[in-house]
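Bit of a strange request maybe. I'm writing a small parser for structure token strings and I need a real example to test against, not something I typed by hand. Could someone generate the tokens for this chain?
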Amino acid sequence: MARFAANLTMLFGEVPFLERFALAAQHGFKAVEFLFPYPYPVEQLAQALETHRLELVLHNLPAGNWDAGERGIACLPDRVEEFRAGVSQAIGYATRLGVRQLNCLAGKTPADADPARVHATLVSNLRYAASRLAEEGIRLLIEPINTYDIPGFHLSRSSQALALIDEVASENLWLQYDIYHMQRMEGELAATMKAQLHRIAHVQIADNPGRNEPGTGEIHFPFLFAWLDRIGYTGWIACEYKPASTTAAGLGWLNGLH
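Reply from user aminoacidic:
Good idea to test on real output. This should exercise your parser:
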């Protein structure tokens, strides 16, 4: 049976971030995820999770200056020391908050860098992070992201991510499969998820076009949810969409599944 987690970066955006935990619990979610915990003291987040009996199932490694448009630093040859420091920071948060999976955003391909050096940097950084996280019992994930929403993002197709996983050759590197991003880049959602189920550790959802809640676009989510159950996916499905109006008004699709 599909298990859904609320992405607090995207959902309940009408209220301050720390108030979203209560709303997630009130609407029946047992788990949450969000982009970054780092702006908040770890004990403050731990208290919010404990108070509302929520599991934090995922957050990202530090990804550079988000407000300035950076979307990850793992492929940037001149940011390796910063990347490694970020791995340590992420482990500190994850171990206190009980997070068993961390996502690594590859970043945008630098326009003036040698492509071979960019690729080698990403491979090396992923090997380092996968090894460090394995010591703590935490999975490392990588996520292909569509280049319509983030032009220049280095990792944009599932085939690229799977080839990268093969090259890194770590048992602790997994695929985060975002249905919205992959619908925009390649389609073949059901076939890809079935073929790569053994390497998919986390699934995220939003409809297309618009990146709004399921039922607002072209993706047939009732089929996909049943399909994930049928092929044996047991991980979380994270609701990483922009509500078309308010979060509460757009949760009819989820209530209809129960």
